[in-house]
Structure formats: structure tokens, C-alpha cells
Write a structure and sequence with these properties.
The chain is built from six helices and nine strands, in the order E-H-E-E-E-H-E-H-E-E-H-E-H-E-H. The model has no long low-confidence stretch (mean pLDDT about 90). It has helices spanning about 10-20, 80-100, 125-135, 165-180, 190-200, 210-215, and strands at about 1-5, 30-35, 45-50, 65-70, 105-110, 140-145, 150, 185, 205-210. Helix content is about 40%, strand content about 20%. The strands form two sheets. It has a seven-stranded parallel β-sheet with strand order 3-2-1-4-5-6-9, sandwiched between helices. A two-stranded parallel ribbon has the order 7-8.
Length: about 220
């Protein structure tokens, strides 16, 4: 499999990349983002752009890929609505449309969130739901993953310094939660494995809830 991914420096993306590179079926991974990872694994290439709004300069590197693992996003807490909408909806669609145009037989896997709903009264869930609807309207196979709480499984660190103390304190409880509450909690490792399983599946489901993420990871 040849995988294009975003969010490689984020907490979720870091874990997904670890699992992706651990899969022997994966031959190439391109990480689209604003900063180069300079990863030690020779299968990883950096596709650096100033913004997902400006993909023309890397258009020839956006194909051919079997799947796009979209792990980028903004924190749902502390991000103003206009900024959250821009990052979550507008930028995601920019990448998805470019990917769909160049890889019509590929599939786009989007890390959404539990209870995403365009009619939700809670702003992040409403915008996530709107994003899901817009992605599902594209002429390409799309899969929405809806994790609940996400445990860092490989020592991943949030790029947002203010969130790191929370993860440090919550780590033991989150690990227990993944085992005891599979419908509510998952991990970066489970997300990565589930995305790989969905990328290889002949007919993946359109929406994958938290419990199904954990089931696929096994």
C-alpha cells in the first residue's frame, strides 16, 4: 500500500505513522504538512506546503496513492469557532478534493470524532459533522472514523504545550479506559491499525464508531 497522510506531527498522526510503518504491506508513506519530519525510515517522504490552501506546488506528488489518512486538525477546546471551521472544514476539503481528483480509485479516511453531527448544539461536533457530510459528497470512497477519548500509545506528545500536562496525568486512566470502555476510548495504535485495515478492505463502511475502531485494530 502507498499511503498519503496529514497530521504527522500531531498526537494522533504520530501514532498512526508508527503503526503504518510497522505494517509490511506499506511500501511508501508521504507526509503532507507545513514542517518536514525528516523521518529515518526510507519509505517516508515529506511533502511540505505553506498551507493546505496552496497545494498547486506539490500537485504532482499527490498521486498515485492508495489511501489518504487525514489526521490533521485543531483542538476542539480553546480554538475560536472561525479558526476551528477553517482548519476542520475548509482545509480538510482542500486536501480531499485534490486527492480525489488525482486518485479516483483511492480512499480518504478521516479522523472525525464521536457524536459528530451537523445539527449538534456543540460547535466542534457540529463542524465535524458538516465536514463528514462534505467529504461523503465527494466522488471517492470515504470513511469517517469517530474515536472518543484517545490514549497516546507510543509516547506521542501533543504539539500543543498546554495539553501535555493533561495527557501526562491522564495516561494511566486512559490506558484502563481503552480496556474497560471500548465503546468510549481508543488509542493512537488502535486508530492506526484500524485505518490500515479499512484501507485494505474491499468495501469499507462509511462510518466507523469507537468500538468498531478497537475491533478492527485487533
Amino acid at each position: 500500500m502507498r499511503i498519503l497522510m496529514t497530521g504527522g506531527t500531531g498526537l494522533v498522526g504520530q501514532g498512526v505513522l508508527v503503526e503504518t510503518l510497522a505494517d509490511p504491506r506499506v511500501s511508501n508513506v508521504a507526509v503532507l504538512g507545513r514542517h518536514a519530519l525528516a523521518h529515518a525510515d526510507a519509505r517516508v517522504e515529506d511533502v511540505v506546503v505553506d498551507s493546505f490552501n496552496h497545494l498547486a506546488s506539490v500537485a504532482d506528488r499527490l498521486a498515485p496513492w492508495d489511501a489518504c489518512f487525514y489526521c490533521a486538525g485543531a483542538p476542539p477546546v480553546g480554538t475560536p469557532e472561525a479558526r476551528y471551521r477553517h482548519v476542520t472544514l475548509a482545509l480538510t476539503l482542500q486536501v480531499a478534493r485534490a486527492f480525489a481528483t488525482r486518485n479516483p480509485q483511492g480512499r480518504f479516511l478521516y479522523v472525525s470524532g464521536a457524536k459528530a453531527d451537523p445539527d449538534s448544539a456543540f460547535m466542534p461536533l457540529r463542524i465535524k459533522g458538516e465536514t463528514e457530510a462534505a467529504l461523503q459528497a465527494l466522488p471517492i470512497t470515504t470513511v469517517m472514523l469517530r474515536p472518543g477519548g484517545i490514549q497516546p500509545a507510543h509516547g506521542e506528545r501533543s504539539p500543543h504545550a498546554w495539553m501535555r500536562p493533561f495527557y501526562a496525568l491522564a495516561a494511566p486512566v486512559m490506558g484502563l479506559g481503552v480496556r474497560a470502555m471500548p465503546g468510549l476510548m481508543t488509542s493512537t495504535a488502535h486508530l492506526g491499525r484500524a485505518m490500515l485495515a479499512l484501507a485494505a478492505m474491499p468495501q469499507p463502511p462509511a462510518v466507523v464508531e469507537n468500538e468498531a475502531i478497537n475491533r478492527l485494530a485487533r
